């Protein structure tokens, strides 16, 4: 006979000794917050017992702090095991749980181990096929067999026995009171369940799946394997021939620089590595020009420039043109597009053609014509040589609140920047958000955030929201609003035409609907669709346009570097699904600094 | 020392110089007195790995067998962290092996020097498992040697640590692998590897023997597990006759540790005729080997050991007697100890052989030895020689005069209670002889001394003196009446009456029994 006693942490919960008599209770999943804390062992926090006549149990949920089992049997027939609700996922790499022997009962016939689905639960783990166990009475290990092998010491009341499954090399070892006892099983099959079996009366054990600190230093063990896997990656043999690998890496870097239009850096890099740049310098600069316009929200100009420089591109890509126009509409609402900006009259210089900076002391890096001043990815992060005026702070580390505010006041009537210190990326963005004078945007930093520093851009989002609250539709000018409405009608017409010519396009339809929805709110910026106005939304459009231009030059749509990263991530995902444990200790992010 | 604040290369090299030059306690003290601990401690958190590593090595050299340095180290703070905590961090499994191993050494030395308790978690849960990992097959041969030696040192005197190590990661089986170099495969296929293996083979074997010796030092179950390891006894026997002194020494140590098991003495030691190579080792070996080997021999000569007979036959008496003349104290102790064991319940011939081999002069020499341990074992030998009546009479008839002289000398000298007790026990044995009794009865000086000890403040000595009296006054033996009378005249009966009222039940019983002899 068996009973399962549950103890809960919460004071209102049933007292220890509360018995479940229901036949089966299924488990609920762990909360994600728990998961992040103990990522590898939470799966089996909930224990489920599937014993038929003898009592059944199960418990789960965060409140459970103790899984307690009590044995009542007398003969081997009375043995029974409980097993976790979920198998150990291979993707966790290393899995560990501990069992405290509260009482060894009459004879201490206790088994701790693993079993596959379908194994007889009325027997101690280890006795049957696909079942593995370490038994307390003789200290033997049972590997799918009725006869054990001498393995470790016996265990009894007060001992804490741990079981660690290494899914990288498919082995298992046990621990006793925090001491590793050495490998017990090798060549384990996948999808095993943690299992505990008891046999004689009075046997009581508590299971710990990570809800309490472990006695054994499993973290240290994981550290070792993480180091091993990473060393394996680092030492992976590359390229048969000397220099081949080097050349390939250089090509990847070069193509990345070209793709994103860092022409001076690309040029310098090509020079120092004896590479040829695949695209003409002028072409890179053209793309960069268009990208800057898009990122500055000046869509009208961007479209015009594109049409000038690549005459047939948008004609051949009506969907792209449509997407650009929709974005233009959004920028009109935002008050940033050139067509409404001149009407708003906020920035007399708005018609000035890019790239000439409106102010003499603005960042020298703004001027791509002075090619040498364009930052490379690396220098834009650390260099401080451009701190000549506060506007150039976009390429520098930190800017003081005071300097920034004074700048904003001179430009804009309703600046409300309350962030005392912003890093370079944030600063460049806030300037975009707060003023029309988007000339100040530093191309390089923009792309830096675009490429990798995803988190910092997201973090910034909140800052922008607060400052956008006081903004007015189309910059507050009536003429601009009218222009915007008119443009909207044109857009609607274009959409209908597109549908006639190319058939239904749900993506386009949704895009347009979302954009028009902005007008339904008195304050579009804080509306549910307000995120469209966020400058960060310019990035996907910018990237699509850039790729389209590159395609016309027979260059890859995506830089090989990004492609390789994507493939690596996919590969890890595939490993996780196919049960290759080492993927738990490798992430692409580890290699991006 | 003053240069330690310079560049990190300077720091690295200075630490290296210190750790290479510091040999022995004198050097440690010099470095310590010049502030080495404080000056080097902060280098443990240097940004340069090489500096950290060299600083760590320095500490391992400074702390070795040095309580003063070790006690200081446990309390040193670096960046708000105690030094042991920093060492524990360096033990983490993701650190380079060299760093793990060296920090484990530091903690081991601090522990052995008494600065860290053996039950401290940093020893039990960190240092010990780390050292066991260093013994694993995955490690380089050099690391395995160092790991095993350090672990042997860590657990040498603590049975709890021995127990934990014995169950950790199948250490005992893991060590068996140390004997598999050079492997037969490498001999044929790979000359370079063979060379490498050969170079380390001796080191590996001696390290394994050392660790087995420590593991089996105290716990019978562990000894059993060690001996059950594949070919263990054969390996030890082979080790005893290896050319390398280091291996031979370690093998003898291992054998010594295992010889503490009564069961093993009776079984596997006998099966493998371990005594043979052991006796061979004892011939012309350097002192350090002799000390351990003779100590092992002591155990093999215990009366329940089946090896006792063949060892005697192979000329052990002569060998042991020569050991008692050694300059080396440990050898003198072991020699006389072995003789004492040998004499226990031995036959007449052996006893005579011992006495003849030792010579009376040497016996007196040993009785005046400055070391109390030698004295005690010599008295023990005498006591074992003087047991069973025929033996007593036989030995006393030939050496009575000298022995009585020796006894008098010791009872008159400045000795501790144990020595005097042992001496009185010898007298009691003599008093048990038939003819030997007379040597006491005719010696008034001795009788006065016995009387004196009957009233001594120490109950043990009183009891021992009572044994003498009891034997002397025992009825049914020739001349008992005369002896009783003489002792009564000396006032012994009065003392017996007094003692029969004693609160000590042993004394009281013994006194009553003696008084009864008078009544009969």
TrEMBL record, chain A:
Residues 283-340 form the CTLH domain. Residues 353-369 have a biased composition (Low complexity). Residues 20-214 form the B30.2/SPRY domain. It comes from the Eukaryota. Residues 342-373 are annotated as: Disordered. Belongs to the RANBP9/10 family. This is Ran-binding protein 9 isoform X2. It comes from Alligator sinensis.
UniProtKB/TrEMBL annotation, chain B:
GO terms for biological process: proteasome-mediated ubiquitin-dependent protein catabolic process. Gene3D superfamilies: Leucine-rich Repeat Variant. InterPro entries: ARM-like (IPR011989), ARM-type_fold (IPR016024), Armadillo (IPR000225), ARMC8/Vid28 (IPR038739). It is found in: Cytoplasm; Nucleus. Keywords: Cytoplasm, Nucleus, Repeat. GO terms for cellular component: cytoplasm; GID complex; nucleus. SUPFAM superfamilies: ARM repeat. PANTHER family: ARMADILLO REPEAT-CONTAINING PROTEIN 8. This is Armadillo repeat-containing protein 8. It comes from Alligator sinensis (Chinese alligator). The gene is ARMC8.
């Amino acid at each position: 006979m068996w009973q399962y006693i549950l103890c809960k942490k919460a004071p209102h919960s049933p007292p220890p000794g509360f018995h479940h008599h229901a036949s089966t209770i299924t488990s609920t999943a762990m909360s994600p917050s728990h998961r992040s804390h103990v990522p590898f062992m939470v799966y089996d926090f909930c224990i489920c017992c599937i014993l038929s006549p003898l009592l059944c149990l199960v418990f789960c949920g965060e409140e459970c702090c103790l899984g307690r089992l009590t044995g009542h049997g007398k003969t081997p027939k009375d043995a029974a095991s409980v097993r976790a609700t979920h198998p150990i996922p291979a993707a966790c790499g290393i899995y560990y749980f501990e069992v405290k022997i509260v009482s060894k009962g009459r004879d201490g016939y206790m088994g701790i181990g693993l079993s596959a689905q379908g194994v007889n639960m009325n027997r101690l783990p280890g006795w049957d096929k696909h079942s593995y166990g370490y038994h307390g009475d003789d200290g033997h290990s049972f590997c799918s067999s009725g006869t054990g092998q001498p393995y470790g010491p016996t265990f009894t009341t007060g001992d804490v026995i741990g079981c660690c499954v290494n899914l990288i090399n498919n082995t298992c070892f046990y621990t006793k009171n925090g001491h590793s006892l050495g490998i017990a099983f090798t060549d384990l099959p996948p999808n095993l369940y943690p299992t505990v079996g008891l046999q004689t009366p009075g046997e009581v054990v508590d299971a710990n799946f990570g809800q309490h600190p472990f006695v054994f230093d499993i973290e240290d063990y994981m550290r070792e394997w993480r180091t091993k896997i990473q060393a394996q990656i680092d030492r992976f043999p590359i390229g048969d021939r000397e220099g081949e690998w080097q050349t390939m890496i250089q090509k990847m870097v070069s193509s990345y620089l070209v793709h994103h239009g860092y022409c001076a850096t690309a040029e310098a890099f090509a020079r120092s590595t004896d590479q040829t740049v695949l695209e003409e310098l002028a072409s890179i600069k053209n793309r960069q020009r268009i990208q800057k316009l898009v990122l500055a929200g000046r869509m009208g100009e961007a479209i015009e420039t594109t049409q000038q420089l690549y005459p047939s591109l948008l004609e051949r890509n009506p969907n792209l043109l449509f997407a650009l126009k929709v974005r233009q509409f959004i920028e009109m609402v935002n008050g940033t597009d050139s067509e409404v900006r001149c009407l708003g009259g906020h920035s007399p210089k708005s018609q000035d053609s890019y790239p000439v900076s409106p102010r003499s002391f603005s960042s020298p890096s703004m001027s791509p014509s002075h090619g040498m001043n364009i930052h490379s990815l690396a220098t834009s992060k650390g260099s401080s040589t451009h701190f000549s005026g506060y506007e150039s702070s976009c390429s520098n580390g930190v800017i003081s609140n005071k300097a920034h505010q004074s700048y904003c006041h001179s430009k804009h009537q309703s600046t409300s920047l309350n962030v005392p210190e912003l890093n370079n990326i944030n600063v460049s963005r806030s300037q975009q958000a707060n003023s029309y004078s988007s000339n100040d945007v530093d191309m390089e930093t923009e792309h830096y955030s675009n490429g990798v520093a995803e988190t910092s851009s997201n973090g910034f989002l909140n800052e922008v929201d607060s400052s956008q609250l006081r903004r007015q539709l189309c910059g507050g000018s009536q003429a601009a609003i009218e222009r915007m409405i008119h443009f909207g009608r044109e857009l609607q017409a274009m959409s209908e035409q597109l549908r006639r010519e190319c058939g239904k396009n749900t993506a386009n339809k949704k895009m347009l609907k979302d954009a028009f929805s902005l007008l339904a709110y008195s304050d579009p910026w804080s509306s549910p669709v307000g995120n469209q106005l966020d400058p960060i939304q310019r990035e996907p459009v910018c990237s699509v346009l850039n790729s389209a231009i590159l395609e016309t030059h027979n260059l890859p749509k995506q830089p090989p570097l990004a492609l390789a990263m994507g493939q690596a991530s996919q590969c890890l995902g595939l490993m996780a699904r196919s049960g290759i444990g080492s993927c738990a200790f490798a992430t692409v992010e580890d290699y991006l600094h | 020392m003053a240069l330690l604040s310079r560049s990190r290369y300077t720091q690295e090299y200075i630490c290296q110089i210190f750790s290479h030059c510091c040999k022995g306690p004198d050097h440690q003290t010099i470095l310590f007195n010049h502030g080495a601990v404080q000056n080097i401690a902060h280098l443990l958190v240097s940004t340069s790995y090489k500096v950290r590593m060299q600083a760590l090595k320095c500490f391992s050299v400074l702390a070795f067998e040095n309580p003063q340095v070790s006690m200081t180290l446990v309390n040193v703070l670096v960046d708000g962290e105690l030094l042991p905590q920093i060492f524990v961090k360096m033990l983490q499994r993701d650190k380079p092996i060299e760093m793990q191993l060296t920090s484990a050494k530091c903690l081991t030395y601090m522990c052995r020097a008494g600065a860290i308790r053996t039950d401290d978690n940093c020893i039990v849960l960190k240092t010990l498992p780390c050292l066991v990992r260093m013994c694993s097959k995955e490690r380089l041969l050099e690391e395995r040697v160092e790991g095993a030696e350090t672990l042997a040192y860590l657990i040498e005197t603590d049975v709890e640590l021995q127990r934990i190590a014995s169950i950790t990661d199948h250490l005992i089986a893991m060590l068996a692998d140390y004997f598999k170099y050079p492997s037969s495969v490498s001999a044929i296929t790979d000359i370079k590897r063979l060379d490498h293996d050969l170079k380390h083979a001796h080191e590996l074997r001696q390290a394994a023997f050392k660790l087995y010796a420590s593991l089996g030092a105290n716990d019978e179950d562990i000894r059993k597990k060690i001996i059950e390891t594949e070919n263990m006894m054969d390996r030890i026997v082979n080790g005893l006759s290896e050319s390398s002194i280091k291996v031979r020494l370690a093998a003898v140590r291992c054998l010594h540790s295992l010889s503490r098991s009564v069961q093993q003495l009776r079984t596997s030691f006998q099966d493998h005729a371990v005594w043979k190579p052991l006796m061979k080792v004892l011939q012309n070996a350097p002192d350090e080997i002799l000390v351990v080997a003779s100590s092992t021999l002591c155990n093999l000569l215990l009366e329940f050991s089946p090896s006792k007979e063949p060892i005697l036959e192979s000329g052990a008496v002569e060998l042991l007697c020569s050991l008692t003349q050694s300059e080396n104290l440990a050898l003198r102790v072991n020699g006389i100890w072995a003789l004492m064991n040998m004499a226990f319940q031995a036959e007449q011939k052996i006893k005579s052989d011992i006495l003849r081999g030792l010579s009376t002069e040497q016996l007196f020499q040993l009785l005046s030895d400055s070391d109390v341990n030698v004295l005690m074992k010599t008295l023990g030998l005498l006591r074992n020689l003087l047991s069973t009546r025929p033996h007593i009479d036989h030995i006393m008839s030939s050496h009575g005069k000298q022995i009585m002289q020796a006894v008098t000398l010791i009872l008159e000298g400045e000795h501790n209670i144990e020595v005097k007790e042992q001496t009185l026990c010898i007298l009691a044995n003599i008093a048990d002889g038939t003819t030997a009794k007379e040597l006491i009865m005719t010696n008034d000086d001795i009788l006065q001394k016995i009387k004196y000890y009957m009233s001594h403040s120490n109950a043990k000595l009183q009891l021992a003196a009572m044994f003498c009296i009891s034997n002397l006054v025992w009825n049914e033996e020739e001349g008992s009446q005369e002896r009783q009378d003489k002792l009564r005249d000396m006032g012994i009966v009065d003392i017996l009456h007094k003692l029969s009222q004693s609160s000590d039940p042993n004394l009281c019983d013994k006194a009553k029994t003696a008084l009864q002899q008078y009544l009969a």
